[in-house]
Amino acid sequence: MDVSSLPIPPELREALRRRGVEKLYPPQEAAVRAGILNGENVLMTTSTASGKTLLAEVAAVKTALEGKMAVFTVPLKALAYEKQLHFSYYGDLVDVAVSTGEYDSDDAWLHKYDVVITTYEKLDSLLRHRPSWLNKVGAIVLDEIHYVGDSKRGPVLESIVAKVKYLGLRAQVIALSATVGNPEALAKWLGARLVKSDWRPVPLVEGVYHGGEITYADGSRRTVKHKADPEVALALDALEGGGQVLVFVSSRSATVSTAKKIAGAVASSGRRMIDAFEASELAKRIEEEAASKVIGRELAEVVARGVAFHNAGLELELRRIVEEGFRKGIIRAVVSTTTLAAGVNLPARRVVITDVRRYDPLLGVEEIPVMEYRQMAGRAGRPGLDPYGEAIAVASSRREAEYIMERYIRGSIEPVRSQLFSDVNLRAHLLGVVGSGYANTQDEVVDYLSATLAYIQLGPAAMSIARNKAERALDQLVAWGFLEKAGEAYYATELGRLVSRLYVDPETAATYIDLLKAMKRDEPLAYIYVIASSPEVPKVWRGRFDKKVAAAIMAAFPDLPLDEDDEDFRQTVKTVQMLWEWANEAPEDRIYDKYGVGPGDIRVYADLFEWLGTAAAKLAAAVGLPERAQSALKATYRVVYGVKEELLELVMNLKGVGRVRARALYNAGFKTLADLAKARPSEIAKLQGFGERLAASIIEQARASLGL
Question: Is the whole-model pTM more than 0.85?
């Protein structure tokens, strides 16, 4: 099918041609026949790189050109900003906005935009607020719909679909995934036409490596000549063949060690596999940009040899440099945790999966699902560059090789199962349902739940199970003071409406309130402990347990049964220790060496604290603890910016001034905005890390903040 025959406006057709799109792939043709460009609900479960995202973008732009809004929702913030870049290909046809945070807001400003890109959580939050612009929405794209089976994000997706149905929004729903085991069930739930295809633009060859040999799915075998660790041998084999390679490992530390081994093998092979000058220049750029000099140096050393590691500990800028270098072919091999398969479109000729097991601190060693294997394998093969893609899984024994072949390569993807009816998930979403006015009585709640995948998958017993679970969840919300019951109806209290708007888990909110009321000492450590007590905040496992920090926390909550021998308490204390050091301006390298927490991790903690810390402050104010609210905010922003209290005025009001520059200004005598408003640019420009332009901007910002 040619682009010229598509039912889209001429200007959109021209935009596609500028992108080099002249003909559609077979799955794209099937989606067009299913009505994806004519307003029909469509579920596309097609292979990676088969063009499903492109068609969803075209449908969104077409919707905007017809005078309506389109909402494009993704599971990760990083994907939201990558998607924004994709929409830039359509030039001036649409105005695009990204909205991923500030859950306590209806983002009324979004009504000015044609396409809104959000995360699942943000869209669900917006649907709770019910802004007036929702009536303008003509298309909703649910990317990576297989996340509906995820214990955390799945219930959010279900809640989105249920709210859209309840509101009667006349919006087309387009759902996308490469890996769904039961697409027919999902299509029925969504009321969508199913487009299912295994077609790939580049053929995929899958196999298992053991004992120096690859056994392929068709039974053929191939010997790999390199005598080295499997991941190194397979990487070198791919590089010598002129391809690029992605190596997926089970832990963050393994990304670094494996990248070093591959880089060493590349250097000692004596073969010219990379452009040494380009790799050297990229390595210099990494060292200059890195917040942690230790991580920057480690990464630069392997990048100089055409290899890189990629994990959540890297700051966003370094991850982008690695991805850019790989796309340009400067970096030939990337070693990553599975986050890359989930979050970044980065194909390679060969994908190596080093282990089908992983270690979870809470669950121990577990096998990865087939869906996750397929996500990784799907990255093999670069359209237009590779004649084929290879996905090779590594086995430690002949028996395991046979198991991997049968389960992961020849086996079926697991069916997606809803996680909504777990107690934690149901409480959170029912508070939003009642607090936003979607339902009030138990009958209305059950009617609302009937639009969820969870309800459908329960079968004939769905109504009675939903009623029992809903009653238990609603009663718990009443016990916490977030709902009140009058006759048969439930109503959100003022506190409950606040919790719903803040998009905080009700149990976390109840814990925060109890801790804030129990606090006897007003000190930052105690507030950091309160915020870090949420399950949302990742716990630190490395580093020595500091008894002094534990004692200070216990002294702040003398009436609580805190026990330093309790493992959960110890992990939370370690997390508080790390955040307290960060808030006292400890360098990134010290945090990394001591706790294994990299700059990318710190950014995650900062984002979480900005959300949860401000939520805790608002909850404190709501329950009559205004002094606690102010102190909680100070502690929160010390973690967000990584500064002592004396620098808060500077970092919170000046763009371009972070913890390092703020400290330089403070030490030079510019301790307040008033000091800066009286300064001359030349006085600031001479400080390390500043220049004339930034100095002038800082002074201008200070004066504007003071109304001068």
Answer: yes
From the list 251, 322, 246, the residue with the least C-alpha distance to 596 is 251
The three-state (H, E, C) secondary structure of 455-489, written as one string = HHHHHHHHHHHHHHHHHHHHHHHHHCCCEEEECCE
Residue listed under structure tokens 């990865």: 368
Tell me the C-alpha distance between 342 and 348, whole Å: 15
610/537 Cα distance (integer angstroms): 12
108-116 contacts, C-beta under 8 A, 24 or more apart: 108/132, 108/133, 111/69, 111/136, 113/69, 114/61, 114/64, 114/69, 114/70, 115/60, 115/61, 115/64, 115/69, 115/70, 115/71, 115/72, 115/87, 116/69, 116/70, 116/71, 116/72
Helix (H) or strand (E) holding 204: strand 204-210
Per the CB < 8 A criterion, the answer to whether 199 and 25 are in contact is yes
Contact 299, 260 (CB under 8 A): no
**Residue range 453-460: average pLDDT?**
95
Tokens standing for residue 624: 């009559």
What pLDDT is stored for residue 78 in this prediction? 81
User: What's the rounded Cα separation, in Å, for the pair 531 and 91?
Assistant: 43
Q: Count CA within 13 A, CB hemisphere, residue 132.
A: 4
Instruction: Give the separation between CA 75 and CA 120, rounded to whole angstroms.
Output: 6
User: At how many degrees (to 10) do helices 494-502 and 423-435 cross?
Assistant: 110
> pLDDT-based confidence at 384, cuts 50/70/90?
confident
End-to-end CA distance of the chain: 62
**Residue appearing with tokens 């905040």:** 537
CA distance linking residue 31 with residue 45, whole number of Å? 10
CA distances 151 to 13, 363, 520, Å, are 40, 14, 36
CA distance 685 to 597: 33
**With the C-alpha atoms ordered 528, 529, 533, 537, is the resulting torsion angle positive or negative?**
positive
Half-sphere exposure of 264 (CA within 13 A, CB side): 11
**pLDDT attached to residue 112:** 95
Give me the pLDDT at residue 498, please: 96
- The residues near 399 (Cβ < 8 Å, ≥ 6 apart) are none
DSSP 271: -
For 552-587, the three-class secondary structure string (H helix, E strand, C coil) is HHHHHCCCCCCCCCCHHHHHHHHHHHHHHHHHCCCC
Over pLDDT 70: what percentage of the chain?
Answer: 98
Q: Whole-angstrom Cα distance, residue 553 to residue 528?
A: 10
179 touches 374 (CB < 8 A): yes
Domains and CATH numbers, the chain: 3-197 (3.40.50.300), 204-409 (3.40.50.300), 423-493 (1.10.10.10), 506-642 (1.10.3380.20), 649-705 (1.10.150.20)
Say if residues 374 and 146 touch (Cβ distance below 8 Å).
Answer: no
Give the β-pairing of 333-336 and 307-310.
Answer: parallel
Provide the 10 A C-beta neighbour count for residue 453: 25
- Cα 26 to the center of its chain, rounded Å: 31
Indicate if the pLDDT at residue 456 is higher than 90: yes
Q: How far apart are CA 680 and CA 342, in angstroms?
A: 49
Q: At residue 270, does pLDDT exceed 80?
A: no
Sheet of 42-46: strands edge to edge?
96-99, 115-119, 69-74, 137-142, 172-177, 42-46, 193-197
